[in-house]
Known about the structure:
This protein is α/β, with parallel strands linked by helices. The chain has three domains: 4-146, Globin-like (Orthogonal Bundle), CATH 1.10.490.10; 155-252, Elongation Factor Tu (Ef-tu), domain 3 (Beta Barrel); 269-395, 3-Layer(aba) Sandwich (Rossmann fold), CATH 3.40.50.80. The chain is 44% helix and 18% strand. A six-stranded antiparallel sheet has the order 4-3-6-1-2-5, with helices on one face. α9 (278-291) links the parallel β7 and β8 (297-303). α5 (75-88) packs across α7 and α6 (94-110) runs antiparallel to α7 (116-146).
Amino acid sequence: MLDQKTIDTVKATVPVLEKHGEAITKRFYQMMFDNHPELLNIFNHANQKQGKQQRALANTVYAAAKYIDNLEAILPVVKQIAHKHRSLQIKPEHYPIVGEHLLLAIKDVLGDAATDDIIEAWGNAYQVIADVFIQVEHEMYEEAAAKKGGWDGFREFVVDKKVKESEVITSFYLKPKDGGPLSSFKAGQYVSIRVNIPGEKNTHIRQYSLSDSPGKDYYRISVKREATNELPDGKVSNYLHDTINPGDALELTAPAGVFVLDTTTEEAVVLISGGVGLTPMINMLNTVAEKQPNRKVTFIHAAINSTTHAMHDHVKELAQTSNTVDYYLVYEKPTDADRAAQRFDKEGYIDLPWLKSVIDDNNAVFYFCGPTPFMRAINQALTAWGVPEDKINFEFFGPADQL
């Protein structure tokens, strides 16, 4: 428990964190990686370079300070982060390293303004926050290992099949190398994949949504090739596309994530995806079709055009063979062939007037995933339509950002 003086001191730093949070977290990562370069084998270099990780950590530290006397208020955020930590194999021994360098960064950025009282208060507060994460993650590690077909750490999977879905997206069908059973998962969850790329100093870990429904004898991930492998965000996707073939092995951690389809209800569901954000949506769609065939589902996908659009034939067939599945396509820049074949329902972008024209009413539960600007637009549209906050569900690829 924290005493009142510590709580008051930490809460008093909230305005400072709001102003200097990203500068502190940027300095934090610099100092930590300088002193512990082995942690570069865990953290996503692309998110570091783009500032996403620094921004996400700054938001988390800010929230922790604001709610230091009521950490239960941020428990949903804690659980979301803890899922990612478990998937990345963050362990209790990592927390003292993080705490030490967070305090050093606060002192370094704030200078004399970071008094001994502030540093002491934040040291005490960090320990309480770290203990919450460690306990939540401990339970997640135990749960993942105890499930039938579950495991702890990384497990080798063999690529059973590799399927090109579009000009930019390829699916990999993965089966356990040990021939053992597969752990179950919830529609919408992801796995972490660790690769050793020849010529790279560090291992790379990336998280990919499972793109097919549970209950199969394989896991499927569908990977978008990033523009170039010269940048950190393209290294793993290009390696998978160009180098990994059937018969090759990949290391996976057990499925994780809180962005999951609620299958305890039969209420209408709307799935909206942009680009490769369709991967968890396809999983959810397949799950509804297989497990809840009478549940009304509207599947809306936005893509540049048919050359980048993956899994169209699969979704089209589901819609044609089911009375409960509606399917709509929005192409930003349709090709001449797209126009001739009338492959899409709207040109440009998804907006609220169009959503209202294809969905009967807003009395449904909404799930969406895609690039951050896309999700921001969808979130704003649904909010303007009066969709309750508890009916709006979304997933970021990478560290959580602000919508």
